């Protein structure tokens, strides 16, 4: 079917180029900020936020107390929040 015969709801919206560029820059910045974290801290964050493991599961996998996992999560979140806030200010 020719594109001009499709309903507007059936045609894909073209992405905003500026928004796509900003998203790519944010992902690059996120990767750099995560690499600044100590390995265990970064692993805790990624397993929890990306892989979906609970803090208890992470503690068992890494041989840490759940309290230490919570501290690593807090450190990672604080670090990300601080650096990504600065990214938004640019």
UniProtKB/TrEMBL annotation:
Alphabetized UniProt keyword annotations: Sigma factor, Transcription, Transcription regulation
GO terms of biological process kind: DNA-templated transcription initiation
Residue stretches making up the RNA polymerase sigma factor 70 region 4 type domain: 28-80
Transmembrane regions: none
Entries under Pfam families matching the protein: Sigma70_r4_2
InterPro entries the UniProt entry points to: RNA_pol_sigma-70-like, RNA_pol_sigma-70_dom, RNA_pol_sigma70_r4_t2, RNA_pol_sigma_r3/r4-like, WH-like_DNA-bd_sf
Entry annotated with the keyword Membrane: no
GO molecular function, one term: sigma factor activity
Keyword Mitochondrion: no
Signal peptide: none
NCBIfam families given in the database record: sigma70-ECF
Name of this chain's protein: RNA polymerase sigma factor 70 region 4 type 2 domain-containing protein
Species name: Alcaligenes pakistanensis
């Amino acid at each position: 079917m020719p594109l001009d015969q499709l309903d507007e709801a059936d045609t894909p919206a073209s992405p905003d180029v500026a928004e796509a560029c900003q998203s790519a820059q944010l992902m690059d910045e996120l990767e750099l900020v995560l690499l600044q974290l100590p390995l265990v801290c970064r692993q805790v964050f990624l397993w929890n936020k990306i892989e979906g493991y609970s803090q208890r599961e992470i503690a068992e996998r890494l041989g840490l107390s759940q309290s230490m996992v919570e501290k690593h999560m807090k450190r990672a979140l604080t670090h990300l929040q601080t650096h990504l806030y600065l990214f938004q200010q640019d």
